[in-house]
Write a structure and sequence with these properties.
homodimer, 141 residues, mainly beta, 3 helices, globular
């Protein structure tokens, strides 16, 4: 994992802190290129070091992301602005729905539960090639 | 405004509902191309129909977004998964820090308050060329 040095003015999270936040949360957003322009969609996910695992149905994410570099982000912020944090991953997305390797078979057994309705027969994996996190204020435990 | 038909399986928000959510919130995320790959960063914003207005310091957002198409997203979801919504905008970003037109001068007076520390001398405007929103469950009032 390398770090993306974007956030000089904020406190930088360690890789371990990033992984802890990725593991503790299950709702984030994926950004990808759609017809040449950025798009963001919210997704539920499970983090399986070193991959973000999501499920999807037929549609934009499945049509646009496999074999491309995408970004994935989670965050939280105090509504009054006293604290906030975010973790961003960049890496390649793969459709592992039919992959026969052991890692893919294992992560297809993960409990990736989607809040939103709809069938999700397809599994996508985003490799955390680059990861970075930042924080300000005192985040409640 | 046109609609991006991405979210067939969820309830689609009307333009008016999207604008209400954009107006009521002040924390979102911007997605843009960084060295040819998608990046997502959280931002505070004010919605000034039909633009998202953010402030930024020198850095990635200022270096990468002006004169490009970006995406901007806000969302909220019940941690237990009972409800959720999101609004996504796609449109061109402009650095309006030194723009002398009346609209730019007016939106530079908006109270765009950033949670995170750091000086933000530059103003960016994202035109809401395309807007879409979706929802599931019963969102509390």
């Amino acid at each position: 994992m390398s770090r993306v040095p974007l956030f000089e003015e904020l406190e930088t999270l360690t890789d371990r802190e990033c992984v802890e936040l990725l593991t503790a949360n299950h709702f984030g957003r994926i950004a990808f290129a759609l017809d040449g322009a950025p798009m963001i969609l919210p997704v539920n996910y499970v983090y399986a070091e070193p991959s973000v695992v999501i499920r999807t149905g037929p549609g934009t994410k499945l049509a646009s992301t496999p074999q491309t570099i995408v970004a994935f982000e989670i965050d939280d912020a105090d509504a009054a602005g006293a604290w906030g944090w975010s973790v961003v991953i960049q890496g390649p997305a793969f459709d592992i729905t039919d992959s026969i390797d052991e890692y893919s078979a294992a992560i297809r057994k993960l409990p990736v539960v989607s809040y939103a309705p709809g069938e999700r027969m397809h599994w996508l994996k985003i490799g955390a090639r680059e990861i970075s996190g930042r924080r300000f204020g005192t985040v409640p435990a």
